[in-house]
Amino acid sequence: MKKIIVPVDFSIQSEYAMKAACSLAKKHEAEILALHMPELNRALISSSEGFHPEQTVFLIKLAEKRFNNFLNKPYTQGITITPIVKHFKVFSEVNEVADKHDADLIIMGSHGAEGFKEIFVGSNTEKVVRTADVPVGIIKDEIPDFAIERFVFACDFKEENLDAYSKAKAFADLLNANIELVYINTPGDSFLSTLDAYGKINRFFDKAGNGQEMDIYNDYTVEQGILNFAEGTEADLIGIPTHGRKGLAHFFRGSIGEDIANHAKLPVVTFKI
Fold this sequence. Notes:
Number of helices: 9
Domain UspA: 1-140, 149-271
Number of strands: 10
CATH architecture of the largest domain: 3-Layer(aba) Sandwich
Oligomer: single chain
Radius of gyration: 20 Å
Structural class: alpha/beta
Shape: elongated
Protein name: Universal stress protein
Organism: Aggregatimonas sangjinii
CATH topology of the largest domain: Rossmann fold
Family: Belongs to the universal stress protein A family.
Strand content: 15-25%
Number of domains: 2
Pfam family, one: Usp
């Protein structure tokens, strides 16, 4: 683990993300790239008509001062943090920053979900998840000492998930974490016997070119099975695949990926298929 990107908007959620990133950076001697994108009026910074450069400079300097104050915290001490200020707010650009700086991980803060309040509908977190080629960690609560030792990765072991699985395994190796793979078996048309389930999984590993111990966990829904399995194994992190620009709603079926990211008490990390 060499570089972690943390998008910062000065919210309490981005502070939670920064604290989690600092915990990982200290453990793995990584650098943090703190990315801030000020909300500037596009016409103000690009239009020649009625252009007031002194006003633009003032707004940029104000944003940079606020950014520096945000980073001047006890938990950031002793960590190499490189501030990056981009004067736009197009969240697909986060992936370009990650690619340019060869980052290993993006960590973002996000709200949880209670009742009708769902985080991924039109959210900036979703935009980053859909476009990022590197893993994206989603932090919703303050974690005093964030460490990833037990990492649960759940998928349906279809061939389309081979790349996501490879990324998840490389991610676990990077953090020296124990990866625990799980297939959730549910009642109804999708139910598989133990023999059929292991046959499907073995065919997946044959194509992956490596084997891995894994579990078959029975539950009423895939979402609840993943959450229950992760809680039962005392995991530090849940990993799920995503179809990128198609959104998390294509993970397994319906909106299971969204539901997991919304309702999981644990941090979630996504891997693009």
